[in-house]
Amino acid sequence: GAALARYCLALGDDALIYSHRLQEWLTRMPELEEETAIANIALDLLGQARMLLARAGGILGQSEDQLAFFRSEAEFRNVRLAEHADRDFAEVVGRLLIFSSWRLALFGALSSASDPVLAAIAAKGANELTYHRDYAAQWVIRLGDGTELSHARMQAALDALWPLTAELFLPDASALASVDPGSVHAVLDMVLAAAGLSRPGGATLGPVSGRAGRDGVHTEAMGYILAEMQSVARADPDATW
Amino acid sequence: GAALARYCLALGDDALIYSHRLQEWLTRMPELEEETAIANIALDLLGQARMLLARAGGILGQSEDQLAFFRSEAEFRNVRLAEHADRDFAEVVGRLLIFSSWRLALFGALSSASDPVLAAIAAKGANELTYHRDYAAQWVIRLGDGTELSHARMQAALDALWPLTAELFLPDASALASVDPGSVHAVLDMVLAAAGLSRPGGATLGPVSGRAGRDGVHTEAMGYILAEMQSVARADPDATW
Amino acid sequence: MSVDLQEHFDETIAHERRIEPRDWMPDGYRATMIRQIAQHAHSEIIGMQPEGNWITRAPSLRRKAILLAKVQDEAGHGMYLYSAAETLGAGRGDMTAKLIGGRQKYSSIFNYPTLSYADVGVIGWLVDGAAICNQVPLCRSSYGPYARAMIRICKEESFHQRQGYELLLTMMRGTAAQREMVQDAVNRFWWPSLMMFGPPDADSPNTAQSMEWGIKRHTNDELRQRFVDMSVPQAEKLGVTLPDPLLRWNDERGHYDFGPVDWDEFKAVIAGNGPCNTQRVARRKAAHDEGAWVREAAMAHARKNPERVRVSPEASS
Amino acid sequence: MSVDLQEHFDETIAHERRIEPRDWMPDGYRATMIRQIAQHAHSEIIGMQPEGNWITRAPSLRRKAILLAKVQDEAGHGMYLYSAAETLGAGRGDMTAKLIGGRQKYSSIFNYPTLSYADVGVIGWLVDGAAICNQVPLCRSSYGPYARAMIRICKEESFHQRQGYELLLTMMRGTAAQREMVQDAVNRFWWPSLMMFGPPDADSPNTAQSMEWGIKRHTNDELRQRFVDMSVPQAEKLGVTLPDPLLRWNDERGHYDFGPVDWDEFKAVIAGNGPCNTQRVARRKAAHDEGAWVREAAMAHARKNPERVRVSPEASS
């Protein structure tokens, strides 16, 4: 029970915080088609977050909103990749490609989880994530292959994001499924090859005494996300919405 | 009593919110000398805010921290100019020139206020504001006179800021002093002449059904400022700091 | 020939049949129609901003999902309407340039700020409500593609309006602070909502031609009155006070009387001096400008790979 | 002549007198001194970021003022130290270029994130405490301008350290959540603080030369031990647990024994893979790059008005 709750929380937090970062991009996209696509992806992830937090909350005796709006930063279990603030559209699609490829692999493994609720969430989510990954891949290819400028920006985005990927594959005692980095890298390599881009290597965003996002140790961006996200709910804890 | 409290709150909120916007610029300045100058100005305004909120709180039976951290947006009485997010250094110094010239004129008038505490705060503040205004004026002149680029950016900054100035001179029933726009404009004109810049005219940032900052009707930026500023204090209202 | 075409056009209008893209139409009709549809499209796109402002801060995950879906719908409406305008020969790129250059308008209501989560509800209730009053008759617009777009859009707008009203009902059953928040939002949005119907009929010189062409079905004042009559009982049910001391039922007219609208404020906002005009257009312009390199990359990629990838023509605008 | 100069230098060092800017000094001494002072200056400037991160969110106005003043002091220390390095012929612009190009280091501690307001207190207590252990002996540095800078800086650092400790004392008397916050911050900062003294003496090949030149007065391990001995009773008074199960008093040595430092983590952080390295340097670089047009404008203005306006020479860097 506790392990399941903890893991649903982690995956739910990934989706909730990632969705928040996409929400910030609304009305700032390069085209209206991208506005609707990004809104759609943000909605899908929000939906995944709600189901996962509800599953965790069922075990912990808390509602999705209590978990989303009344936990402190150290209680959030998302990976740090989810909280990254994309600086341009290249980072938006590059990060989405990495995140959705990894999460799709994870949800694939989880669709045979022993908890039937989690298995169902994973199976439904896998369909959505397939679309997210394909959307991101198409844009990574367009930008990688497009102009000299877009190629440079796409490669710079990947280079900037890459240090955040190591954490995705860290051993996690509470994980109910794990993903082979090689299989995710293989997917990325296919896309990057089509885009004429190279997979970065080397640098990683180190942990703090061995602790990172899954342990509640985040980047400095996280406090600002939560201050904003939780502000209205916390201003009047007795309110009903 | 009530009018004095309300007015001290308004002037205190101006300083508190303005200081917040300067705090955001720390570690982002073009030179280290500017880091210390802006930190110094932010500190002065924070000091003014504390004295003014303490004066208001003495009447209202609330502490400076209760007033700063536990009021809602509609209860803040600052002018909207205070909450503007400066987009570059030209806006930093342009806004500071406008704000400190106006506030200095106001504090000059208030140094003979009937409330001795407010009069003392105004007298002390006037010294600080004189320095702020001179610092800003020197930079407006440097940028206006410097390069073609800096001239263009300085003029663009003034143009962008100007619509926010109309509110400074609106009749305010609760004001204990008022400032003649002509006298402030005269100061600005002197600086702008030395900088080779022109004082913008025309556009104003309209109120909402006649209500603006002094009535608790702010810009959309204000909610984000307060969410951030109040986040730690509100996370644990029983905490002592 | 031109006479024949004009006759055919007039006859189509007279019989309340629809003008279609391939049909001949007078230049004035085309220009007016383009402007009307473009401004409507712009309103949908700019209208994403005031509501989008609250997505990241929505106080429950259910409300967050509802609001996110609504803003997504508005983007969809915008695209749908730009496509309708394109059937008249207007380009999306050109219309966007006119919007961010300040040469085409959008609904004045979006130049007001959203200052609390209650504003999300009030925009649903009053602003979408006013939009529906304006738009339902346009489902019978003489221009076919616009009329069809309006049918779909009105359906979704009604849904949004009910969601907004439901949010307000929930808030009014909540804490005292929530009720105050709703009342404050109503105070700020009531008068601007009445302005959404445009200037009084006496100051609306194009109304006659537009009604003759079947692209406007009621006068501004008729629609405004309809909106007031509809809103007053809704406000009563909600338990909020509409900020108009002169508002009262007139048995003789069979309508609510209401106080004078502040047309000076309306003109100031239309002229660019509203609380958010600059901010709204600047945001749209920044998104467009900062996206230029992305659109160029998509075009370059499409040119290199004509067979493999279909890039929507809009990506070139 | 060179022999005379070298002898004079050696004698100055031997007599614990100070080398001044006008004095001859060996190239190695000059280079080492420049690097030491520049890295110290960089640490002050980069060190503004982790603490500056909490100014806008400080939970009381008094704490906000204290923190703002502290960060301002750090900028002042940075300027003061860059000036000291300039007396050796280094340029501030060049040193800044080395910092943002990753060619000169700053204290590894600033590559850790600040994650709660307790971190402000713990940085004051442990990080400033460790800095003071490092720096007090440098008030006797053989290089005069640096020694004098250190006297002033140490005074202010001690003040900061007391303020940090006082914040923690206050928090420990507060709510359970506050006490947890303090403990969590201590858990995250204890080991990185021990790393601030640099690698173990066995891995510190330059220590001997630096001590001979009088620009280092104690070995890394000596200073680390002093810091541990000082901190343990302070932690006890505070009521927090230092995250080291091997920490215990050794009567024989007259010191606290402590567990092994994770030097792999230290090396990873030094190599650029800490949690915040990229972020810290990117922020500094962005400020510098985005400020270029301002510095250029100031120079252009000064050239046009040589008599009227004095612009500091640093504005040209």
From TrEMBL, chains C, D:
GO terms for biological process: phenylacetate catabolic process. Transmembrane segments: none annotated. Gene3D superfamilies: 1.20.1260.10. It comes from the Bacteria. GO terms for molecular function: phenylacetyl-CoA 1,2-epoxidase activity. GO terms for cellular component: cytosol. Pfam families: PaaA_PaaC. This is 1,2-phenylacetyl-CoA epoxidase subunit A.
